[in-house]
Amino acid sequence: MKILVTGYSGFIGSYLIPRLKSVDHELVLLDMKTGVDICDWEQVKHFSDIDIIVHLANLSFIPASYENPKRFYETNYLSTLNMLELCRLNNAKLIFFSSYVYGKPEYQPIDEYHPVQAFNPYAQTKVISESLCEGYYRDFKVPITIFRPFNIYGKGQNPDFLIPTIIRQAKAGKIEIMDDRPKRDYIHVEDAVEALIKAIEIKNESSSLQIFNLGSGISYSVKEVVEMVQKLFDMKIDYLCTHKIRLNEVLDTVADISKIKKELHWQPKILFQDGLKSMI
């Protein structure tokens, strides 16, 4: 197949591309490193004969979405709109990488039917983009698979994210955390890529809209993560929690992954402790 991948040089893309190359797909790789601004329709409209678009490109660091919301909204909205339109013109399928969009859970574990509720500017951009996907499916029958990852981690992740920060601090001998209460459902990047591969290879009906959670079904608190990391180092590591609470903090998230297990025959394989060890 001819597969167009946006954000190919990012965290997830760096794991996905070697997998796609290993099975001889024809790849069209787009992001700022190739000098293509996918938010500019004039720069992308000429791509043709595409079978699948895997849309990974987005701005994703939540604190930055508060500092520069306009850039987040423009980038995440326009890039998704342009990829949807490219799918429409090419009769192609879109695989869209969304995010955790459920806000403070009304029940746990959280399935795909849980009400969607954005709780920060970044999550709002994903809710808007998902709505665009629904519109293109409804009106033009563009086949779409949406993944809602809970908390992805792994080697090569943005160093400002929680787990890389904890590991970096541990190496320096002292871990300092603002709030160690929140619990998160973590999924290793290699498991997330395996789900993407299955979505690419599955033989769906000619047109469908599917939404899948990506998680493990288990949540760990920040304090539990710190303790796991401490145990993996053969040295004394000091620990301090400042008890500074983030705006709109969600205290616990657990993914219900029964749908993706049943329909894509996927389940996570990498245990959280093993994933942490591999990062260290």
What do you see in this structure?
The protein has helices at residues 13-21, 41-44, 62-67, 69-90, 121-140, 162-171, 189-201, 222-231, 258-263, 272-279, and strands spanning 2-6, 26-30, 52-55, 93-97, 144-149, 151-153, 174-177, 183-188, 209-214, 219-221, 238-241. The chain has 280 residues and is an alpha/beta fold. It has a single domain (2-152, 188-217, 250-268), classed as Rossmann fold (3-Layer(aba) Sandwich).
* Biggest sheet: strand arrangement: 2-1-3-4-5-9
**What's the N-to-C terminus distance?**
37 Å
CATH third-level topology: Rossmann fold
Secondary structure class reads: alpha/beta
Global morphology:
globular
Kindly provide the name of the CATH class: Alpha Beta
Assign a percent range to the helix content: 25-40%
The CATH H-level superfamily is NAD(P)-binding Rossmann-like Domain
Radius of gyration: 19 Å
Domain module count: 1
Which H/E pattern describes the elements?
EHEHEHHEHEEHEEHEEHEHH
Mind telling me which CATH architecture this is? 3-Layer(aba) Sandwich
Count all strands and give the number.
11
How does the SSE layout of this entry go?
Blueprint: E1 2-6, H1 13-21, E2 26-30, H2 41-44, E3 52-55, H3 62-67, H4 69-90, E4 93-97, H5 121-140, E5 144-149, E6 151-153, H6 162-171, E7 174-177, E8 183-188, H7 189-201, E9 209-214, E10 219-221, H8 222-231, E11 238-241, H9 258-263, H10 272-279
Helix pairs in contact: 1-7, 4-5, 6-8
